[in-house]
Design brief:
By secondary structure, the protein is of the alpha+beta class. Helices cover 19% and strands 25% of the residues.
């Protein structure tokens, strides 16, 4: 899963964040307004904060701006945030997690069979299809 949030600022002015929210750790890359860069890691789950990506952004901006921790952070200077997570992917691959249902409207019933057309050789006329998740 990937999320992209972009502000109305020029890409030359603000903070740029790339975040990978994993099951154990959240890794963050930031490019500061002065073009310096920093990589940061924190626990994805901790009772000291509600959300690891938001906490990492708060800590990195506080450190760069010289603010004390615990004060609100102005977010208008964030150029963009790009975030991916492996949590849902890992749950599917490991066959863990809660039972779920996937519903599609009329006309999209082939979506489950077609998927995203990802296969090792895109032009192979006789391709093998992976086993369905159950």
């Amino acid at each position: 899963q990937h999320y992209f949030i972009q502000s109305n600022l020029s890409s030359e002015m603000g903070y740029k964040f790339a975040i990978d929210r994993g099951g154990t750790f959240t890794d963050v890359f930031v490019e500061y307004p002065d073009k310096s860069q920093h990589v940061y890691k924190l626990l994805s789950e901790d009772y000291h904060y509600r959300d690891a990506p938001s906490e990492a952004i708060r800590r990195l901006i506080s450190r760069y701006e010289g603010f004390e921790m615990g004060y609100p952070i102005e977010t208008k200077n964030i150029d963009w945030i790009r975030m991916g997570t492996t949590v849902a992917t890992n749950a599917l691959l490991e066959r863990k997690g809660e039972p779920m249902a996937f519903c599609v409207s009329k006309g999209f019933k082939d979506l489950l069979h077609i998927g995203n057309q990802a296969r090792p050789s895109i032009f192979d006329l006789v391709c093998s299809i992976a086993m369905w998740l159950r």
